[in-house]
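Regression check, pyridoxal-5'-phosphate case 402:
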Amino acid sequence: MDVYKIREDFPFLKRMVKGKPIIYFDNSASNQKPAVVIDALRDFYANHNANIHRGVHILSQEASELYEKAHDKAAKFIGAHGREEIIFTRNATESINLVSHTLDFKAGDEIIISEMEHHSNIVPWLMLKEKGIKLKYIPVSEKGELVISELEKMITKNTKLISVVHMSNFLGTVNPVEEIGKIAHKHNILFMVDGAQSAPHMPINVKKIGCDFFAFSGHKMCGPTGIGVLYGRKDLLKEMKPFLGGGDMISTVAYDSFKPNELPWKFEAGTPNVADGYAFGVAVDYLSKIGMQNVWKHECELGRYAYEKMAELGKITIYGPEPEKRGGVISFSIKGLEPHDIAGLLNERANIAVRSGFHCVEPLHRKYGLPKGSCRASFYVYNTKEEIDKFIDELKILVKTF
Ligand SMILES: Cc1ncc(COP(=O)(O)O)c(C=O)c1O
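Current build output:
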């Protein structure tokens, strides 16, 4: 993989602020788009724009085909059987909410998540508490790993679902989802994976993972905002009730009843996000061409490089496990400096974009005694070791000055 060649594909890298380029290390929040994706959006609206599934005219046919084919691409990208297992949503958050709202939970049912979840994989389940559903948390160790040995002890005959994050957006930890999937299925429990931070960075095969549901977002993998994906096992999706009602999700409607459409359209009510769906498919093509194995290798190399250099500086605390158990995400604190101040200084002094605060993982920050959160640098396919060197130079100055 030639990172310098890849960098030519990203227009944002040509942008200068105060005479200097931007070093973008906020990729876990959302990442930048290659020209092919930006061009696809323009091309769609210029040449193929129409509502889908409702017209016999050429534009509607073209728009329908482009949108549907994006589902096929997403299915191939994560090893699903086909488009009937791929529902387009707005984002990973909506994908998880679709499951929490449509599975048939009853009072007394139990759901197991973990202490390292993003709010998107906590709040939808907390919202079920008023239905009498109990939520349990797999503990996270001081080192930032799931204490899997606790999981089987937490399972009871009432446990209906286990839902865990694949790669933590705070700690960078890659969780053993295949092992968790085996435990879940041994006990006949449904298994969901929050893949918002894994699908953009590593090869994914949902059948190999053994999950029943897998959620991710297009905007974290070179695609536009406004498109997320829910993978669901076909037999389960067939049995589940529709999430939203309206046009396109039905095959027939009468005054007193309706019959849902076939999968996946049964779960995509109303006019969907056609242009972004199509452009998301282009992003999938773009990443597939680079090869997800290459993307992952590059990011792990960057992660290790940054981790080792940061560890040498002293006064910096890095959260989460050692490099071999994580991807290219590093959350840290500097003694004597608030996370927002670190991010502000990096931005002001060197156009380095990092995130500060809780990164939507507030409970775990509080458990670690971090009421102001942490700072996070997260890497993607276009980042380089030279950019990390610049980042380290700036951190050195901060460590020395404060
Ligand atoms: C691990 C994880 N899960 C879920 C989400 C939610 O993604 P979105 O905001 O695109 O719905 C994020 C976003 O940062 C995330 O990092």
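Comparison notes: The first strand starts at residue 16 and ends at 17. Residues 346 and 394 are 7 Å apart (CA to CA). No diff flagged against the previous build.
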